[in-house]
Write a structure and sequence with these properties.
With 147 residues, this protein is of the alpha/beta class. 29% of the residues lie in helices and 26% in strands. α2 links the parallel β3 and β4.
Amino acid sequence: MPFKPLRLLIAYDAAGHRCSAVVPRMKQLLEERAFEVDVWEIDGEAPDLDDYQGVVIGSPVRGLALRDGGPTAKVAAFIQSTEALEEKKVAIFCVFDVRPGTIFDRMKNLLNERGADVVTEYPYWRVQPADGEDLLPAECMVRIRTR
């Protein structure tokens, strides 16, 4: 049986251009791991998720992540309104200035309410986004392919 690449969607909020700084390289690293990757800036109606084996969702972290440490309103709305996340394998990431805060706990709670299977998470520091950039794609390769 021939090898068939799995399809992934990277959905992210481009506010402040934080996530936009890491998404192109993330896409490249995922494609090097034999995924077919589509990228969507969260805005308007979501693409049909039935065509994807996994979804990577990213949110910028605002400020010091003290008071509002959760995902942006766009990311939260996407998670809450997308029925097709049920039983999807989901990786989450954030791009932060000072610290990630509680964003992953909040994102995982929203995703668990939707019935999604959160398989990995990774915080990218805006100052040095390349540090550990291969970790999320490697985790996706293992956890999305083998689960």
